[in-house]
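USER: My hope is that you can spare some time for a protein that puzzles me. I am handing you a single protein, as its sequence and its fold in C-alpha cell form. Walk me, if you will, through where the backbone shape changes along the chain. The protein I mean follows directly.
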Amino acid sequence: MEREAEERLWEIVDQAEIALFITNTEAGYPRFRPLTLLGYEEEGLLWFATSRSSRKVEEIARDPKVTVCFLALEGGAYAQVFGTARLVDDQALKGELWQEEWGEYWEGPDDPDYVLIQVQIYKAEFYLIEDDELWAIEFDPLS
C-alpha cells in the first residue's frame, strides 16, 4: 500500500500544472509563491532554484519548515508535502540543473545570486478528487 501511495504521489507531482512553495513570514504567517520544480528524488527530495537575495531565502534561514502544494487539476488531484528546506550551493549540481532561459534572472550557473533549494520531505498528503480519497505518506529523512 505504501509503495502504491508513493507512486501516486509522484504521478501527481509529474502532472501538476502549478507548484506553490510556502514559507513562514517573520510574523508567522504563510507566504506562498509559484515555483518551478527542477526535479525530485523518490526518497523524498525536491529541488528548486532561487535568488539568494529573495525573501524566501531569508524565511528559510529563520524557519526551514516549508510546504509545497502541487495542483494537478486536469488529473483530478492535488498534493501537499511538508519538509525542511536548505540552500545548496554545489557548483556541479547548479551547472547540471541550470536552464538557459534563466539568463534573464542570473548571469549563468556561476552567478553568486543563483542558489538551489533542497526540500527533504517528511510527510506528504494527496487528495484524489474523483475518488474522494485522502492519502498520507511518511518519509524517512536521508542521513
